[in-house]
Amino acid sequence: MRRLLTMCVLAGFLSQPALAARKPPLVPPRITLQALAALPSSTPQRFRVTLQFDNQNTEPLTIKAIDFKLKIASEGIVDGESYLGLVVGALDQQTITLELRSEIVSSLSRLQAFTQGPSNTLPYEIYGTVTLDRRPKVKGEVPFRSSGDAPLTTIRER
User: Fold this and answer.
1) Which pLDDT value is given to residue 128?
2) Is there a cis peptide before residue 24, judged by omega within 30 degrees of 0?
3) 141 has which bridge partners?
4) DSSP, res 156
5) Is 93 within the bounds of a domain?
6) H helix count then E strand count, the chain
7) What is the pTM of this model?
8) Is residue 144 part of a domain?
9) Does 123 reside within a domain?
10) Helices marked H in 22-154 — which ranges?
11) Phi/psi at 67 (nearest 5 deg)?
């Protein structure tokens, strides 16, 4: 009996390093809209968006692609997608800038009417999927969603 108890205790101690070596579960990156710029008028309306990727993991993330919808104020949804190959370091942040087009956003002047405060911010919601490269595992699509306020600027023709 004593020998069995000793073996169980010993097995428990030996299994501790294996448990400690197990990686914590993957936390999806937090993706937020940092800036929204309306480009010179055209049909469809064009926007330049700056997205921030915040990696809250203790290991780097390789982001292969992003597919998203950006809801601006109450005025419509802008679809976006990009194939990135972006590496975000452990506990680090990266920004990217994308150019998007939308026929749904009715007009720039109407959109400007929804801006708030001296910094001309607009409420937004962004949601979609981000594709992570998790080698040797299979690539994984991870859903994301966030909302907040982002400044709206306009870029005039030169």
Assistant:
1) 97
2) no
3) 131
4) -
5) yes
6) 2, 7
7) 0.81
8) yes
9) yes
10) 108-112
11) -130, 120
Structure tokens at 11: 């097995």
- List of the chain residues with pLDDT < 70: 1, 4-23, 105-107, 135-139, 157-158
Residues whose CB is less than 8 angstroms from the CB of residue 18 and which lie 6 or more positions away in sequence, other chains included: none
SS3 70: strand
Number of alpha carbons in the 13 Å side-chain half-sphere of residue 148: 14
CATH assignment at residue 138? 2.60.40.1820
Residue 6 domain flag: no
Provide the residue type at 64 as one letter: K
Range of the domain at 89: 26-154
CA distances from 146 to 19, 39, 64, 69, 70 (A): 33, 24, 20, 11, 10
- What total of structural domains would you count in the chain? 1
